[in-house]
Task: structure prediction
Amino acid sequence: MASERDLFSAEIVNRGIESSGPNAGSLTFSVRVRRRLPDFLQSVNLKYVKLGYHYLINHGIYLLTIPVLLVVFSAEVGSLSKEDLWKKLWEDARYDLATVLASFGVFVFTLSVYFMSRPRPIYLIDFACFKPDDELKVSREELMEVARKSGKFDEESLQFQKRMLMSSGIGDETYIPKAVMASSENTATMKEGRAEASMVMFGALDELFEKTRVRPKDVGVLVVNCSIFNPTPSLSAMIINHYKMRGNILSYNLGGMGCSAGVIAVDLAKDILQANPNNYAVVVSTEMVGYNWYQGKDRSMLIPNCFFRMGCSAVLLSNRRRDYSRAKYRLEHIVRTHKGADDRSFRCVYQEEDEQKLKGLKISKDLIEIGGDALKTNITTLGPLVLPFSEQLLFFGTLVWRHLFGSKTDGSSPSMKKPYIPDYKLAFEHFCVHAASKTILDELQRNLELSDKNMEASRMTLQRFGNTSSSSIWYELAYMEAKESVRRGDRVWQLAFGSGFKCNSVVWRSMRRVTKPSRNPWLDCINRYPATLN
Result:
């Protein structure tokens, strides 16, 4: 196992010039110690690998059976010449017609059962990401000025927020609601929440319906996820009312499920589409920044102020076979991991009141460690579904060796003690990792051994739009489309994690080469990226 020292990382932080005290006028520094993500090379649980293979076997039984039948049939037919084969078929049909008809009936019945029981493919027709107006754009310095003018924060809280902002990986062109910038009063009101929700949701949906040429009344399933803001009537009801959708629409509203809820919403929409053929489903993922704006002094609750920004995505899914030709992507796999049974995981992102009874979202210092454990479980389960056979063989073989003989290899080399970690770059061409913070992206890149190119979309999304919660993975895919980097057959891995604690993966396969779309939140600035943040 890794030593305790290996679980931490340290960095020296320049805190600027001391303004008072005996050291006034001199530079001051502090040493910041953080927990790293758990080293995936040192700890992989066999039961999650078995779970992944269980999924694979459930969906791959036909792939194993059909080749065997073909081999048997070929061996039987291969021993006969063409003339003998036709003669045998004619004689059998002539003298044993009942057997031939019965065999043909069994064949047709088996084929019908197979195609009827086979899950319908789920297509992603298109998606849209909301881009706010420039008047809502704010730089890091402007955000600090807003915080200072509000009069709600003492000097220590302001300095803490400044340090967090400067090390966050967030740039100077993100967006926050006008209510936060223009008012020092409480922005966590139902009025402000509804106003922000209307702006971002209707903006994304207007673009989606325009791009896909689908009428709102044609949508049969609606799933909306927003973690913090959950009014009555619900956000899904707001959308139905605004677009005058049909009365028999199946609508769902997911609340309190954090930044990974976008994948959960897609999974729910998929299950509903499987039970309701020839339907469209719309998935809306968003978060209300103003409603969750914290104006107290608890540092663990000030962190969301520094990272979360406005954003919303709207995705159109279909199970109609005639949409095959115009779909952008096909859904391949969804793997969900929930660590809520563990108390530390359950409370690591927790909404509560501080000592002054001000409501906020509290972020635990153990977030990196807990998130890493959930991520490790998720990717270990996902591996058997997506990795090439050679990678699976190496991974599974070294893992079994470690579990069977690990206690007897104390004198052997380190490579014999730790399992082989598969190269996920062989399974996917594109990675959309939830843009939570620079620190988390750094740790994920190190542990998964991803290249800077693999992480480009996540880092640039964090820099340009900030942490937009559950919609961030769609801004990342929009970045790839604006760069025209998605080719036919490419596999896209969207990985999200959030409160609960949950880590969820969704895998898409590109149906065609995706050209630069006519509407995209990156179009006016894509030529400036990738860029380095100063």
The domain at 122-401+420-510 is CATH 3.40.47.10 (Peroxisomal Thiolase; Chain A, domain 1).
